[in-house]
Amino acid sequence: MNWRFWMELTMRSGLLLSAGIALLKLCRTATPAFRHRLVFSLFLLLALLPVLFLLLPEIPVSLWSSASGPAEVTIQQLSSRALQTSAHAPLSWLLTIWLTGFIAACIPLLAGMLSAWRIKRLAKIANPPILISQFVSSPITTGIFHPKIILPKSAENWTHTRLQAVLLHESAHIRRHDLPIQFIAHVISALWWFQPLVWLLRRRLRAESELACDAEAIHSGLRPSQYAEELLGVARTLPASWKLSSSAIGMARTSGLEERLRAILHPQAASLPRHTVYAIGIILGAASIAASSLSVSQNSEPGGSTMKHAITSALLVSAGLSTAGFVTASDHAEAPPKHIHVRSEVAESNLLVKVTPVYPVSAKQAHIQGIVELSLTITKEGVPLDLRVLSSPSADLSESALEAVRQWRYRPTLLNGQPVEIDTTVVVHYTLRP
Questions:
Q1: What phi and psi, each to the nearest 5 degrees, are found at residue 114?
Q2: What does CATH list as the number for 60-89+296-326+336-432?
Q3: What is the pTM of this model?
Q4: pLDDT tens across 45-85, in order?
């Protein structure tokens, strides 16, 4: 996976999330529960984005056309040989950065789940599912599969009105399944940690869940002014250093408190008409299709989506590795010779994914044509490595050939029942037609 893959991934996800954020702003007068569902739908669509890449056909969109005449690119693979020495594909440094970011983003969630488990284990049962603990400063709800409401020890001295307001709010979180939703959103955010809009939407999801639970508590019989007074009273008891666990939801938080009080005292939310809800669903569907299918290029010649090729290649390589894993070598099998020549037809017949290079616009405008000759090693898993340019008329043509051949994937070549590495040469012809 190269930087083009991650660039395309960021741009496509950004298109989808930007459309969702725009819809969210247009729905600012909708109920918090509807806005909460809208934000969570964006997370689900984001998680399905790689699947949609594979299922939906690619729709090429040309920004501008080249001023030069038509051109063609043809590929020829020369003779190959098997190598005795083994080499493993190095882990892409971009992939390493992504894995590091994913693990770092999951650490607060795992630490919060462990902290919540300890608090629940040491808490005193008041009235299931309500617990009382001296280790919390504010009422919280925690637990994905078996949620519990945990009240601070000071709740023993609360008035009936405050206790009612808190329990109505926290019970709404349980009834709305906010904890599993928050957990799923956090995992998806960790997978897409490099997309800044994901973290913006995650904060919005949490804020909308609080607003929705406030609305449910008021609809249960509490007066808005009375509920706002109790919410503010609970928030005032929070110490300055108190921080809510990543795996819990609390009624009182210093962030977003002003927005919540304004929504409680001056409600403006209303249910949207059915046709508006349908229109929002159609717009979200269109944005998902556009983010998954559109492929923008600088000319009308097809080049293919780098991301789609990368995902397809990864799946094919995984299938090849699984098949090769069932091939066992005999204990008395002879070691393969150091150099075994393989006909070019054999290597070409094992080619699973073949990406045709795109003729660079700059080379076409400069009327540059010719042959680019590449040498490469095909690993046991069928991945091209150690690509080198043996000859080329220009740097643009070299980069075009390298970018395409890097995405090729082969079926593992077997020698005496064992997958082996292949050293081969690929020749790419760039020709300008008159």
A1: -65, -45
A2: 3.30.2420.10
A3: 0.70
A4: 999 998 887 787 777 665 544 444 455 566 665 555 554 44
